[in-house]
Amino acid sequence: MSIPANLPFSPIRIVDGIAYLSGEVPFEADGSFASSITQQTDTMLGRVKARLEEHGIRMRDVISCTVYLTDKAYFAEFNQAYARWFTAPLPVRTTVCAGMMVDDAAMEITVIARVPA
């Protein structure tokens, strides 16, 4: 599943050597969502990684993440899965509890990354 072309935003913008990713949700290729928080986290961050790599950016170039979870009870499981995707220096991160615009998505993430020279 890809972002419909008629939505009024860009999936990624690169300005002055910084990449700004619009929110990524953890939908699978068929549009479904995994039932576990770990699987949704891995799917979502896999989508982020793929989007960054399309522009020559690696996960180690991520500067900042803002994560939205639908339930604070998901935080520990999410955090454990999230930690596997990054190495030092770790990106800064804000995590908030919020409703989602996409049914069945337990989370969403926005990312800011530097574009390697």
TrEMBL record:
Which residue windows are coiled coil?
none
Q: What is this protein called?
A: RidA family protein
Organism this protein belongs to: Rouxiella chamberiensis
